[in-house]
Specification:
The structure is a homotetramer of 343-residue chains.
Chain A (H helix, E strand, L loop, with lengths): L1 E5 L4 H11 L5 E6 L8 H4 L10 E2 L7 E4 L5 H11 L3 E4 L9 H8 L13 E2 L2 H9 L3 E3 L3 H16 L2 E11 L14 H4 L4 E2 L8 H11 L6 E8 L6 E9 L7 H15 L6 E3 L15 E8 L4 E8 L3 H16 L15
Parallel strand pairs in A: 1-2, 1-4, 2-3, 4-5, 5-7, 6-7, 8-10, 12-13
Antiparallel strand pairs in A: 8-11, 9-10, 11-14, 13-14
Helix pairs in contact in A: 1-10, 5-10, 6-8
Chain lengths: 343, 343, 343, 343
């Protein structure tokens, strides 16, 4: 399988290159870059020396393309690639929202390819594996969205919590990308912790869309607050919601019921591991696993679910390859079986 | 004023020594240590070279003592000091809970000095300044408690939120102290983020006690979840609660009402600053300020309050000196006016 | 004393503002900024809330000015300020090199004010206190230079080492300033260590100039290699040179001779502390102290001197205020007596 | 191939488990632990969930064993394993020094198995590949030693530098292991930089032994100074030596001669990459590559070589597997071809 990366020069793009280099069936044959065109990949990213390729201005024909462009420019770049017959995973937000009006409201631009929205599949394999299998265009979920949806999906689907839910997420700085900004400047971020996006983060509507679809009757009201943590990789999301009356029980029995509910929901999933102790982002560093820990504050009847993952892998490039594997009929874990690098 | 520190060798103790060294009225005349007795302060802590003192096994007579011992041993050590006529700020949890039974339940030991509980004052100056002024024994609040109570006090006092409240707190590693533990081991904590204490953190009952006292009728049900962030100093606490019907308004008007409510509550406070943008822990690094940012998710009607402080200063040693200043009739900001060290 | 800061919006400028805020004799009355003009200081730097001032486009008349502009523009800005009769500390490199040709060679621009070079004093108080006292224009030393010169000065002055000397320096990222760059981008710098400037760092000629002046006959040949460490503040410099025959002795006796030589050289210095164990940058975090540890590899007869300091304090803003104190007849330690913030 | 790890519970051991899990020919069948015996691997190290094994008190029969025990206890544990016919890579220092007296001097204990010293091979494949191929017992080099020897070997072998050489090394904290110590306590190490081991680090004699063997006539006098950097993984070593007269040339021509000399020395090596820009430890994070950058301070005629690697991979577990591959006739890069994880 000839694979290409559109805009390899951001962190999601470069992580795709790393993972594809180790994939037994895909061969990375072309990379493009908004910056860096004309240089070789290994000049800009010395760790990629063994998969050195020239950074091209335009994508050559490939069987499968990943776009790591920002929103709007991504959709524009994808249209001609689809026309060549290639399958595409789009890592931008362009095809995540089903509704072009909502896209325009949150992203401030008119959607460049609204005719593709109907066929694009929101590529969270744990919720949409069959649709992904038949798709030619995947909207790869955002990193925050993956952590939040995987944390809440079982509880929402089963309706065991009341509508009002808070997701308090903490992300490493690589989630903000490789573009220079004061908020990613080392001396500003190191030894610092802050909240941001309090007037509405762009990942919120896709979380709502996907969670509401699991249980429209529940009337989910999701509050999402992202925070910036002084580390490079990792997202940990802590979700809170009042337990619906009588649905879980309390204490040790309630804990068992919760774990059973979550384990049953994720039975057989290769990349979601329901754990029985608070997980650490470090246990997912560099690999495609999402750890989910459901518990509760039994005193107040509050469900607490902690999820964590590597924002550049299960939150971006790893999930993109997982989608490629499903779309191409490869084993779903192919090229994604490396353990986390610890410590 | 002759001041002494019981158990100087932890991070709260050593921070007290740093701050007392710069205090115009207090003179640090004696320090004791569980470890390190027989050594000089500057041998163990080279940054304290200019206030070098021998680390003694027992406290010499002083006018004012700070105890930085762990709970239980702190109360025991304080009894004879009070008998000498000295005033005392206890930085342990021993005198924070009014109820000896609750203490025993959360700390697992019988209270060593229940006869002192009635007179001890929970030393959060913003809520109890007058009581502190007349006290001879202060229970210095915990770091998480200070951040959480200051974030929620105005909203609870005014009853603008519904009873179910979540406090999601993120702390730097120094909060876990200088005692060796795998959870403070560099390679385990660096590039890592995790939740802990999910079955009940010991700071929870003091938060509840103090907040409930502000508005007993509200029926507060507080869920508190602490997290460990890869940084040395700083706590950021994100609090969430459903806005009670019609109490705040929405949008820009609601935001103004909220800010006014908080600014009015903290009017004149030297160490609480109500800000109109999300605060950063780094803006409090090394000083005694607590920043509080009240806002809301207006879509869902959820109050969000972000507070942050330096866990070793406003969360421990700085607040202890603020209490000393009040108890001794010094200006409340004396020795505490240093700006945060940034970046 | 009315003091002003030209270009307050970099890390050296903002650190000056912090330190001046706590200075008993100087009052910060005006700050200018290349960026940020028109905003208030506290908007851009929330930790400076208590010393809020508007960021002006031009300096108002002051008694004493600090320039934190980059080289070339700094000299240009200083000329009219000197003409008002104000004294000036220039934190740029513009007046550090005595020789305009050398300046042009290393900085690639013609010197904007060569007529001021003769009167400008290289402001390392430990080596030039008397000249500083009478000066109206001080060239504040670079951060690497301060660490390296203070480490080597006693050994060079006394001629106890052979000419070939290596200074291997490690700096925190704040030394690279607040200007955005990929080399200061969090995800690039965190968990990373690298050398740079291997074809000649601009601090080298001022180190050589000052060290050679201490002992021209020695024929010093200095190799200087800076490294970037994943931390915000701090420089540690490790210096190596072959011990000249018979000058120090060996083993415990040699160690004592070395310590005596260094302690004698720095006797009475308020901000240089000769220590007898390897120092940590953390022991200088936020204060104006330089720690110096002289020792040797006695097997090979190699002198090793380790020095460390806070690059923004003794390496920049603190030293600038130390120079101001000397120039204005204030006690040299005024406003600079805060202990390091630890941990 | 059945492989076992003696004392899996330190960082080198757990990294071996991670890498062996991905090795196509070796199967990890048994792990032992000084601590943790009786628990399962995944309980102690959640990232190893997919290669879960019980932690045994004693090693079962295997074809190949790795010992990650500390020195002295390692040699003792290895004797019976060799007797079963298994091949062994010892990651401790026990078989690195050829001379039992030197071992006793540096490690303070009598060598537990001096009869094995003659046959043990110092397992640096780039210098001893053929001897490794035929060995049954490998002394796996120390992390500092690997970085220093690989940096200096070409220059020493070719005799292009004078005898007096300084190696200034900077290591991440994981090199100090998983055993609790104040020097690995997060709050002490974070935002800190320090030198240590100034009276002689235990890796020095093995560096000298191996480098002297390359060119006994040169009379190498090596000074080695390790430093602790605030990061988890990575070693960067900066080496300095005066260029022998006329051996390299100067300027651009000298640079080319140097690069050619180094590239020729390491031609065909799969895990040493001679680069033409200063390397970053981050470019080796998690993989088995050592980057080497030779250059010079042409003004003073000083050779500078910068090398870097991941202390737990090429500096420990990865090199151990590289040795296993050679000893067992597998392709040398088998299981070691993952790219570095960046950023």
């Amino acid at each position: 399988l000839k694979a290409g990366i559109i805009n390899v020069t951001g962190y999601a793009g470069v992580e795709l290159a790393r993972l594809l280099h180790g994939h037994p069936e895909a061969e990375l044959t072309c990379v493009t870059g908004r910056s860096g065109a004309g240089q070789r990949l290994a000049e800009v990213f010395p760790h990629l020396a063994p998969c050195d390729l020239p950074i091209e201005p335009e994508l050559s024909p490939v069987d499968f393309a990943f776009s790591a462009l920002p929103h709007a420019s991504s959709a524009e770049a994808i249209i001609p690639v689809l026309d060549t017959g290639a399958k595409v995973v789009d890592m931008s937000a362009d095809f995540r929202l089903k509704d072009a009006a909502s896209y325009e409201q949150w992203y401030g631009v008119t959607h460049p390819a609204p005719h593709l929205l109907a066929e694009a599949v929101y590529g969270l394999p744990e919720l949409a594996r069959e649709a992904i299998r038949g798709a030619r265009l995947i909207a790869n979920p955002g990193c925050y969205s993956t952590a939040t949806i995987l944390a809440l999906a079982p509880a929402v689907k089963e309706g065991v919590i009341q509508p009002r839910v808070v997701a308090d997420a903490k992300s490493g700085v690589s989630g903000a990308g490789r573009t220079l900004a004061l908020t990613s400047h080392y001396s500003e971020v190191n030894e610092n912790f802050s909240a941001y996006g309090l007037d509405g983060h762009r990942h919120l509507p896709e979380m709502q869309q996907e969670l509401v679809a699991l249980n429209p009757a529940m009337g989910l009201q999701l509050t999402f607050v992202p925070h910036l943590a002084p580390m490079t990789r990792g997202i940990l999301c802590s979700c809170y919601g009042a337990i619906a009356d009588g649905r879980i029980g309390t204490g040790a029995q309630g804990q068992k019921t919760l774990l059973d509910l979550y384990r049953s929901f994720y039975a057989g999933e290769p990349f979601v591991r329901v754990v029985d102790r608070p997980p650490h982002t470090k246990h997912t560093w560099g690999n495609n696993v999402c750890l989910v820990y459901p518990t509760a504050d039994w005193r107040t009847g509050t469900l607490i679910v902690i999820s964590c993952l590597d924002n550049l892998v299960k939150g971006a490039a790893g999930q993109a390859i997982q989608n490629m594997n499903i779309m191409c009929g490869f084993p779903e874990t192919m090229g994604l079986d490396a353990l986390a690098v610890y410590p």
